[in-house]
């Protein structure tokens, strides 16, 4: 459970990034954190993981205050940042050195994930490509079975087959008490994965809804001619991508279209 | 769960250090041994007579040259944002992470470096005696050096030496928690500035204001010709040591990614 109450935060000598931001998210979800560049997605993730101190307000993760960085809290959270440096050790050595800190670490799952990503356990981490390192970090993160897993731009640097494997992995490796927070610009990569969308803009959460709810209430489709009752439309080589109120059927949510519609001022209830 | 210090978790942290940095550490120790031996070989091969006391400058200079920069680069994760990120999120308490660095960067050199110096000096002595059998070289023996100090002063001498070394290390160690890049140089610059201010202060009050004139007694005169001065100095040194380490702990505890 992640609870944020009236969070305010500003970097030194900069305008406030968040002002009175509140949020409550239960366990067992894959949440997509979306927003424009500089909206504060990474900062919000760093605040949730205790890497930054809020100027005001309170954050709790499973009842723990992140900034205290108690081992009990740190055992429950794993953060895969966008950029990282890996030590000059082989994969198996890294796992030996770190797995013990995570009580629920699943070595069988790790071996399986590494196999799926086609990584060699005897390869030296620092000598791997960025994409390979990222695959390793994602596999390690999922294997920790931490209750909160944070992935910041996880698909950056992954090739096309790996992106598909990534989606399968995240969907398949999670327990009911785990929450995954994914921050990304590349919404297409996580479209079929996430349960919920959080949209951050100007220091506020401007949209917070589940994919199921959206797909029941709205139609996301491509049409050759613009219908009359359209909430939002975009030109498309095949005609128009449109969002309309649902006509009783559910449709697959086009997150990119949704994102653009919200940024255009369309209100989704 | 003990969130302050757990011996099992600390054991895992030690094991992790060994697994991640064991090879680098072994290489560093081997390099130090080779470096010490080469320098001491030059010393023994160029002197037909060496008394035990003559090893002392080498002992102090070589060990300080290694131990002080080593302390100044404590918390290596703080040198980059990415590594700081992983350091802060490693599931161990601040006390455990701090203690590990304290042991590796401050305490361990007091044991490891003298041992390496002793082995290197013995090797250099034996090789010199083998090559120049007529030379008269006394081996390095730390206790033989201490035995030259007056017995009554020995305890204070040893305590003072250890405290002085620890203070130097702890100041540089603290610098490593404050400065991200070039912590050694930046800490030395700050120390230089502080020393400059102190020297300037005494110059002003003694030389310029002529504080001793007209029978006036400055505040520091309490230390002059006082048999308790050594206790005051040791007390000041202990206070300084605790203060610098406490500040370093605070810096690590309050560390953020920004």
From TrEMBL, chain A:
Lineage per the UniProt record: Bacteria, Pseudomonadati, Bacteroidota, Bacteroidia, Marinilabiliales
Organism, as annotated: Carboxylicivirga sediminis
SMART domains reported in the protein's UniProt record: AAA
Domain of life: Bacteria
Protein name: ABC transporter ATP-binding protein
Domain ABC transporter, first and last residues per copy: 2-227
Any one GO MF annotation of this record: ATP binding
Presence of the UniProt keyword Metal-binding in the record: no
Keywords: ATP-binding, Nucleotide-binding, Transport
Keyword Metal-binding: no
UniProt cross-references to Gene3D superfamilies, sorted A to Z: P-loop containing nucleotide triphosphate hydrolases
UniProtKB/TrEMBL annotation, chain B:
Protein name: Uncharacterized protein
Organism: Carboxylicivirga sediminis
Superkingdom as given in the UniProt entry: Bacteria
Keyword field: Membrane, Transmembrane, Transmembrane helix
Key word Membrane present: yes
Entry's transmembrane regions: 20-43, 55-78, 98-119, 154-176, 188-209, 229-250
């Amino acid at each position: 459970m992640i609870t944020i109450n009236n969070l305010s935060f500003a970097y030194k000598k900069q305008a406030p990034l968040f002002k009175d931001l509140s949020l409550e998210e239960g366990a067992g979800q894959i949440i997509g954190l979306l927003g424009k560049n500089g909206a504060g997605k990474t900062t919000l993730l760093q605040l949730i993981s205790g890497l930054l101190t809020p100027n005001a307000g309170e954050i709790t993760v499973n009842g723990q205050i992140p900034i205290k960085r108690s081992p009990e809290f740190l055992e429950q959270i794993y953060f895969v940042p966008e950029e990282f440096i890996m030590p000059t050790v082989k994969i198996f050595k890294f796992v030996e050195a770190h797995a013990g800190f995570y009580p629920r670490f699943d070595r069988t799952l790790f071996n399986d994930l590494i196999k799926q990503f086609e990584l060699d356990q005897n390869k030296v981490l620092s000598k791997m490509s960025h994409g390979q390192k990222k695959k390793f970090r994602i596999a390690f993160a999922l294997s920790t079975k931490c209750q909160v897993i944070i992935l910041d731009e996880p698909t950056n640097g992954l090739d096309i087959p790996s992106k598909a494997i990534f989606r399968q992995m995240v969907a398949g490796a999670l327990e009911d008490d785990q929450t995954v927070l994914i921050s990304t610009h590349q919404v297409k990569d996580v479209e079929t994965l996430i349960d919920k969308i959080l949209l951050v803009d100007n220091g506020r959460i401007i949209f917070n809804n589940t994919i199921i709810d959206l797909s029941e209430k709205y139609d996301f489709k491509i049409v050759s001619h613009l219908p009359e009752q359209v909430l939002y439309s975009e030109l498309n080589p095949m005609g128009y991508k449109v969002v309309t109120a649902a006509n009783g059927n559910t449709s697959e949510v086009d997150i990119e279209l949704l994102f653009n519609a919200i940024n255009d001022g369309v209100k989704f209830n | 769960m003990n969130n302050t210090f757990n011996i099992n978790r600390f054991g895992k942290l030690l094991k992790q250090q060994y697994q991640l940095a064991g090879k680098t550490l072994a290489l560093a120790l081997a390099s130090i041994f080779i470096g010490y031996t080469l320098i001491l070989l030059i010393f023994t091969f160029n002197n037909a007579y060496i008394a035990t006391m003559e090893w002392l400058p080498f002992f102090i200079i070589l060990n300080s040259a290694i131990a002080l920069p080593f302390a100044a680069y404590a918390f290596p994760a703080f040198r980059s944002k990415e590594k700081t990120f992983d350091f802060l999120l490693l599931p161990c308490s601040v006390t455990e992470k701090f203690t590990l660095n304290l042991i590796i960067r401050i305490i361990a050199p007091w044991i490891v470096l003298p041992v390496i110096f002793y082995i290197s000096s013995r090797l250099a002595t034996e090789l010199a005696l083998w090559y120049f059998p007529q030379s008269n070289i006394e081996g390095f023996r730390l206790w033989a050096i201490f035995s030259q100090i007056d017995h009554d002063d020995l305890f204070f001498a040893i305590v003072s030496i250890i405290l002085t070394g620890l203070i130097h290390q702890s100041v540089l160690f603290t610098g490593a928690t404050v400065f991200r890049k070039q912590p050694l140089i930046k800490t030395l610059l700050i120390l230089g500035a502080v020393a400059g201010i102190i020297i300037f202060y005494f110059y002003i009050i003694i030389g310029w204001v002529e504080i001793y004139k007209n029978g006036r007694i400055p505040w520091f005169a309490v230390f002059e010709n006082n048999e308790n001065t050594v206790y005051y100095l040791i007390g000041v040194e202990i206070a300084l040591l605790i203060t610098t380490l406490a500040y370093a702990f605070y810096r690590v505890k309050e560390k953020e990614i920004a």
